[in-house]
């Protein structure tokens, strides 16, 4: 029984690690597409699609954290962290749609830094 729980915990932890890595990558790609937004005609479309993918990656992170937490009954801290990222992603999307770059850009940098930190902790 203990081996089964340990295997499930490792599998759940791996899923969380992949979700955080995917989120980090998508946030980085959003920074790249933001640069293209300023220089290329297709930049706006790329940034818009990237926002949806980044938001989906944040939702996947929440799902992975919940799935890793529930079976093992461990700390709920990763769930709260993932939920915090989802809140930040939601604010980021709203600010982007409202065209508020003075907050949108620094928040994107903060999210990337926090996501790299979360990835390094794994």
Account of the protein in words:
There is one protein chain. With 122 residues, the protein is an all-alpha fold. Helices cover 90% and strands 0% of the residues. It has four helices and no strands. It has helices spanning 2-39, 43-72, 77-97, 101-121. Helix 1 (2-39) packs antiparallel against helix 2 and helix 2 packs antiparallel against helix 3 (77-97). The radius of gyration is 16 Å and the shape is elongated. The mean pLDDT is 90.
Quick structural overview:
The protein is mainly alpha-helical and 122 residues long. Helices cover 90% and strands 0% of the residues.
Query: Helical percent range?
Result: over 70%
Give the termini distance in whole angstroms. Answer: 25 Å
- What radius of gyration results from the CA coordinates? 16 Å
* Residue runs with pLDDT of under 50 for 5 or more positions: none
Molecular shape: elongated
Query: Helix and strand succession?
Result: HHHH
Summarize the main sheet: none
Main structural class: mainly alpha
- Contiguous helical run count: 4
Overall pLDDT metric: 90
Quickly list its features.
elongated, 4 helices, mainly alpha, 122 residues
